[in-house]
Amino acid sequence: MVTSSLGGILYPASLPTFTRLPPPPALEDLVAWFWIPEWHIPHGRISRQEVIAYPASNFVIEPNIASFVGPTTRRGHRDLMGRGWAVGALLLPAAVPAFTDDPEGLRDDALALGLPELRAAVDERMTGGEPDLTKQGSDQTEEEADLTEDKADPGVRRVQAATLVGQWLQDRAPTPTDEALLANRMVALIGGDSSVLRVEDAAELLDVSSRTLQRLAKRYVGLPPSALIRRRRLQEAALRLRTEPETDLAALAADLGYADQSHLANEFRQVLGFTPSGYRRSQPER
């Protein structure tokens, strides 16, 4: 199944093409999902993509670079030009030790990995090959016909590219420990339960101490649990402002557990650089 998720993208209307793929069962403890943007920007134009990224690390393959991208603390952007693509894996905490013992040291930073063979293999899948039109109908064997169809089908090529990235990770990531799996559960709980407004709430639901959560977050995420909670609330606020333009800001702040509208506005401005009302006004008319 292919799904689309634009939760961390601040201006999804300007995104060229974005595909999200679920991980296979063998990677469910390591990868939240695979994400694949593709773009073909007319000559002389630039498409700026602004995001408030999920509070997690990513493994990213592009034509000229492979990298482990650490967790972010602020709004980011990338200017897209010409034709290009990326194949990324949003990593669960249990996958982080495959790349670093210190994700905190890679906040708002990236670690170049090289990996020329993997990059070449993924590039071959992503760019594909034009179907062989010299053979048609009865001149093609069944196997050749299937191959031609696969080369022409961008959905198939995306799945193949993500499979290559996932297999590389599966071959190199350590078997998740109980501690790593607990870190996964912590992130899933904080990211998916809007009733978790304090670190103590998460600790109680997971039946551990707040100090344990602080330690897990430092080792496997690189951001403190409180930052994970704040990021979830900001992403939800941004989503509501995009999809429910008539939402009352005071009511939105209350729904998301902010002390008041000013608290929401201050946190929005601190991380994103603009106010909730300014962000709402910047959205294209529906």
Automatic annotation (TrEMBL):
It holds the Pfam family HTH_18. PROSITE patterns: HTH_ARAC_FAMILY_1 (PS00041), HTH_ARAC_FAMILY_2 (PS01124). The keyword Cell inner membrane does not apply. Keywords: DNA-binding, Transcription, Transcription regulation. Residues 184-282 form the HTH araC/xylS-type domain. Residues 123-151 are annotated as: Disordered. It comes from the Bacteria. One of its GO terms (molecular function) is sequence-specific DNA binding. InterPro entries: AraC_XylS_family_regulators, DUF6597, Homeodomain-like_sf, HTH_AraC, HTH_AraC-typ_CS. This is AraC family transcriptional regulator. The lineage of its organism: Bacteria, Bacillati, Actinomycetota, Actinomycetes, Micrococcales.
